[in-house]
Amino acid sequence: MTMKTPVLLTPILAALLLAGCGQNNSPASSGASATPGGPRIVEITAGDTMKYSLTTIEASPGERLDVVLTNIGTIPKEVMGHDWVLLQAGSDATAFANAAATAKDTDYIPPSLKGQIIAQIGLLGPRKSDDVTFTAPTAPGEYPFLCTFPAHFLAGMHGVLVVK
Questions:
Q1: Element (DSSP H or E) covering residue 41
Q2: Exposure winner among 25, 65, 76, 121, fewest CB in 10 A?
Q3: Chain CA centroid to CA 101, Å
Q4: Closest Cα to residue 31, out of 18, 40, 22?
Q5: What tens-digit pLDDT sequence spans the chain (164 residues)?
Q6: d(CA 37, CA 119)
Q7: Could you tell me if 50 and 76 are in contact, meaning their C-beta atoms sit under 8 angstroms apart?
Q8: Looking at residue 37, what is its pLDDT?
Q9: How far is the C-alpha of 79 from the C-alpha of 63, rounded, in Å?
Q10: Neighbour count for residue 104 (Cβ, 10 Å)
Q11: Could you give the residue ranges of the DSSP H alpha helices within the chain?
Q12: Which CA distances in Å does 1 have to 4, 5, 6, 7, 131?
């Protein structure tokens, strides 16, 4: 019986090893889709320096995008939370940020300006990540995005989605 054990284990171990050598299907940070025809993944980090890792995103009209925001900071959410809010073209991002500063009860999204939002990722604490999938506008133009946490916009935490 001891002689049969290695003979039986050899095919099982070989199968396990081959199964472990499969292709890694996790999306690449280069913007590759997770599935053919799926949305393009755009990864953005934000940290305690109040800056996004990307300030410009280029998209084709009507392109599907999945924006992934990761807060790589260490300071608690109540003091240094980060979100990502994409606004309509022509929106006044400064006015939106100023109104957001007084909207703590709604996670710094001013209810009176919600109609300007195309897509958003809610407020994240340290080491948290979230995403939003949306279709880029069909009209070419520049669509501002920002962090609505108080003073983050003023510190430079904003950017633009360029549709062309």
A1: strand 40-46
A2: 25
A3: 22
A4: 40
A5: 444 444 443 333 333 333 333 333 333 333 444 557 799 999 999 999 999 999 999 999 999 999 999 999 999 999 999 999 999 999 999 999 999 999 999 999 999 999 999 999 999 999 999 999 999 999 999 999 999 999 999 999 999 999 99
A6: 20
A7: no
A8: 79
A9: 35
A10: 11
A11: 4-20, 77-80, 93-100
A12: 5, 7, 10, 10, 55
At 16, the amino acid letter reads: L
**Lookup: tokens for 141:** 């133009």
**Residue ranges of domains in the chain, CATH in brackets:** 28-163 (2.60.40.420)
- pLDDT given for residue 159 in this prediction: 98
Provide the residue count of the chain. 164
User: b/e string for 67-76 if b means 16 or more Cβ within 10 A?
Assistant: bbbbbebeee
